[in-house]
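ok here's ATP-dependent RecD2 DNA helicase, seq below lol
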Amino acid sequence: MDAIRGVVYRTIYENTQRTYCVFILKDYNEEYITCTGKFESPKEGEDIEVRGRYVEHAKYGFQFDAFSIEKLKPDNMGAAKLYLMNLGIKGFGEKSVEKVLDYFGIRILEVLREERPEEIKEVPGLRQSVKDELFNTLLGEGILADLNHFFESHHISSKWSRTVYTYYGVQAVDVIKDNPYTLLRVAQDMIFGTADTLAENLGITGSDMRRLEAGLEWILRNLDNQGHTCLPVDQLIARMDDLLQTDVDDIADFIQSLLEQGALCSTYHDDILYIYPPQMYVAEVEGANYTRDFLLEADPISLDIQGFIDRFEQENHITFGDAQKEAIKLSFFEKFSLITGGPGTGKTTIIKALVKGFQLGGLGRIILCAPTGRAAKRLTEATEFEATTIHRLLVPVQGSDSYDFTKNEDDPLDIDVIIIDEASMLNVRLFYSLMAAIPREAHVIIVGDVDQLPPIGAGFVLKDLLDSDCVPYTRLNQIYRQNSGNTIVDSAYAINRGDMPKLDGNGDEFSFIPVNSYDALMKVIIDVYKREQEHIEDELDIQIISPMRRGEAGSTRISQYVQQALNPPDSHKGEVRVNGITYRVGDKVIQILNNYDLDIFNGEIGIIYAITRTDICIRFIHKEVRLSIDDAHMIMPAYAITVHKSQGSEYGVVIIPFVPRYGGMLQRNLLYTAVTRAKRKVIIVGTTSAIDRAVHTVNADERYTLFKERIQGSCDS
Ligand SMILES: Nc1ncnc2c1ncn2[C@@H]1O[C@H](COP(=O)(O)OP(=O)(O)OP(=O)(O)O)[C@@H](O)[C@H]1O
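and the structure came out like this:
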């Protein structure tokens, strides 16, 4: 490792999270060296030492890749002045700095070098607030330096120093030395192995309790992402053994002790012990209990149902099929019922009828909701009745976990009826939160297509409710949408049955373009996108939907290609680079987190129409917003998005890349979900073999959950 000392000459770039920077260092031989580092940028004029190595960057040439940085303490009065001025403290300008220098004289070098920030408080003539901030900053500088040193000595990037300091303050180094695994809670992008290696360096090995705790926490943290509410105990032990490579008996004893303390929960079912994190256990058990309460008794509304159906048919010039009528009757009769069916089977039409019917039956406080903003908007448009997202309905507790809501059993919703659409997206935790907030006397109607992808998060509520055979339900099989020749719908149903869709037709609605190389895939996608763009009024109506995000053919890479091809750099167009991603005026972006302040939700797609020094201005379908560049982590490029992100949304034209390199993602429900996102046109670009594999692969990913069994009442605890 090399070390260079010098003065920071100029900062070239720093990302908004302040975890990566590029700057020019002027070393003591007056040579200018471009440095990069995964830490916050030093300030211009600062004396620093960087340690790392010289590298040759393909584009930027020779530069210094700094692994760590240390601010050098000033060794003369001029440097001390610069150092103090560079602290960037409000109200601490040149005059105030002079006061400090006058007071300490040459002794200031000692104060700064030996990190005795408390002495700063003695300086007369400084405002108390300035003194306090100066004290805290100098203290922080010292601790940051200690952290940088500590990390460096253990070969860990100092990019986490600022976060760790912000979290643990003056105690930071001690906290980490005491339990290095605490880093995993603070440094979100740190992997277990990094903390584990540090722990080993510090003598924490084998079955040390801190190691067992961290290993368990790490595995349970990923449970939700993998779709499980619980794990069979053998699985849990095996996973911990894989991760920690320690004595299996110690792991088993540790799990047992947590069960005894109530830090983990468990259920015995079919001779298998399932282990739950407590919040998952509560969600699964209580979600099922609430549902069972609703199933206890029917609660018919006072309405001549047949007369109502006849009138609705007349007014809307349709004749309901038998299954549709059954669904309507069940919804009016039962307190809790379910409607499932594929695209075009009339689910939305039924919802429309239900709203009317419940109103006529005197139940006027009706809520329509869906898991995503886009689905709620679509429902509003289709039913002409205001729908909302489940999150908005339940009112999240600001700044807390994403399942913590203001509306709950103690403060329930003021409603008579709730109709929940796109229910295939409901995971166990969201379902529990929702059920907790529904008053016991309300009618609950759950609507969704059970053949869509399972939800993000644990469980598959819609499927389990259906499979339980305890919930009154209707399955709609007849397709009403443009009955004859809708090849999108026909293809979707063929895929769902496990048949190949017709790929050689020249239908305008469903087409397949074979490609036999990666380059051809990208080229065709761009050509098709361009062609469709010319025929469409609103670019938001075309969407590329890819089976996965990562990899050469993932949505991220495709988005980059499309941007390069269709919206390349242009001196007339504003652009900004955030976290290595370039956003340019004209680009399509997707919101990836709910932003309640701006009223824009996860999954909404928009086009950038302006970029200012501070904001990215985006036109979403119904709204234009100015997103602060500091909040740019809430968006992503979206020429292509994943099938998972597209759930609950519809687009006029959908382009689906589908090639063998998607591997395990080539599954029937994934292709079915992608195809059913299209209203007018689907273009699959790929290979017959990839489609064949998907059509014949029924999602084999097992989700560990006992939700269905709890609905059935076959689980004891
Ligand atoms: N019984 C019926 N007779 C004739 N047309 C019907 C009938 N039911 C629904 N439709 C029509 O079929 C089309 C599809 O219905 P709808 O949108 O309600 O289905 P959906 O299941 O909600 O579909 P998706 O999930 O794809 O939105 C609509 O144009 C609707 O007006």
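fwiw The chain has 26 helices and 26 strands. kinda neat tbh
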